[in-house]
Amino acid sequence: MTLAPQAASAELATPGVHATARIKATCAGQATALPILHGSGPFDLRRTRPHGNQARVCIIGAMNAPLGGDRLRIEATAEPGAHLHITTAAATIALRGPTLDHATYDVHLSVADQASLHWLPQPLISAAGSNLRQTCTVELAPTARLVLREEQVLGRADETPGRLATRLTVRRDGHLLLDQETVYGADAPGWDGPAILAGHRAVGQLLVVDPDFDQQPPPVRLLGDDPARGQAALTPLAGPAVLVTALAPDALHLNRLLDMAHPVVLGRHDFAEAAPTLTGDPRLPLPPASSRRDDGGEMDGLSPPSG
Fold first, then answer.
1. Helix %, strand %, coil % of the chain (to 5)
2. What is the mean pLDDT of residues 56-63?
3. d(CA 97, CA 66)
4. Taking phi first (over 0 means left), then psi (-120 to 50 degrees means alpha), and beta for anything else, what does residue 252 get?
5. Alpha helices in 46-178 (DSSP H)
6. CB-based burial of residue 10 (10 Å sphere; 0-12 exposed, 13-18 middle, 19+ buried)?
7. Other C-beta atoms within 10 Å of 187: how many?
8. Residue 91, class by beta-carbon neighbours within 10 Å (0-12 exposed, 13-18 middle, 19+ buried)?
């Protein structure tokens, strides 16, 4: 009978920030309402100007995160007929923290029938000495639409990366559509070899799920002419979905590859009406996050971890 309180006490005793942000979008006639917009810890949620019937939210970093020991989570739900677009104001930098414990960053997206969700964060940067486990779990109804773009940059300029483990799991109508896991950095065998990154330091993907791909999926296509500057592969999935996987030497070339893929996959009029997109880079150029932490003053993540 005392196990639950003891577990809660142990969690609170763990160094780092424990925070969950929640977003819920609902259909309100010809618009989308946001009845739940709850930020926490490093997540400051801002409602931005809507685009047609699509509600838009920007996540602003209120402190440096994730650091070692942090437990962060974002939950976003688009209810039936709602259209939701989420981005971040700046890149997320995983830093070494005051503990040797890893950090976790979990994203859970749920999209109901006739709803759409665009998840378009700025890049995640794995800085030297960091240890982050990131997951993204997506639950889709049969007629739901999804646009998901993720970018990972391994190390800052002239810096070795930390350890980064990522997993993306997507289910549609209760059936598994995509489940992939990657690990980079220390203790990850072969991550920098020719079979995986081949010396590149930026990797990303664009996943689009659209029921209309059942009838007319796009063909397999290679984007980019020079492997030294990065290339991307467009692959249709059973489900229906399209996955674009990109590899580049740095964040700039990766961004250009994924920008090139956007109109190839999304340049269809019917999809644009259901989930409007912007031309070029669809994310907002807002100021970077503050360095303030509410769990111990100023934290830059550069001091040696304890232990």
1. 15, 45, 40
2. 91
3. 8
4. alpha
5. none
6. exposed
7. 8
8. middle
pLDDT of residue 208 exceeding 90, the answer is yes
Angstrom distance (rounded) from CA 153 to CA 227: 17
Residues 25 and 31: their CA atoms lie apart, in Å, by: 10
Q: What pLDDT is stored for residue 77 in this prediction?
A: 98
- 209, 239 in Cβ contact below 8 A? yes
The model's confidence at residue 13, banded by pLDDT at 50, 70 and 90, is: low
The reported pTM is 0.82
Q: Is the CB of residue 236 less than 8 Å from the CB of residue 244?
A: no
Question: For residue 151, which of 277, 290, 245, 44 has the smallest C-alpha distance?
Answer: 245
Where are the extended beta strands (E) located within the chain?
18-28, 31-38, 43-51, 54-61, 71-78, 83-88, 92-94, 103-111, 116-120, 124-126, 131-140, 145-154, 163-172, 175-184, 202-209, 221-223, 231-237, 241-248, 292-293, 297-298
Residue 286 or residue 27, greater confidence: 27
**Tokens 């409602």 found at:** 47
Question: Within a 13 Å sphere around the CA of 304, how many CA atoms are in the beta-carbon half?
Answer: 2
DSSP character at residue 291: -
Amino acid 190: pLDDT? 75
What pLDDT digit, counting tens, does each position of 255-295 carry?
988 988 888 887 643 333 333 333 344 443 433 444 444 44
- For residue 67, what is the DSSP state? B
Say how far apart CA 59 and CA 54 lie, in whole Å.
16
Query: How does the average pLDDT of the chain come out, rounded?
Result: 82
Q: Is the pLDDT of residue 38 over 90?
A: yes
Q: Which residues contact 239 (CB under 8 A, 6 or more apart)?
A: 172, 177, 178, 209, 213
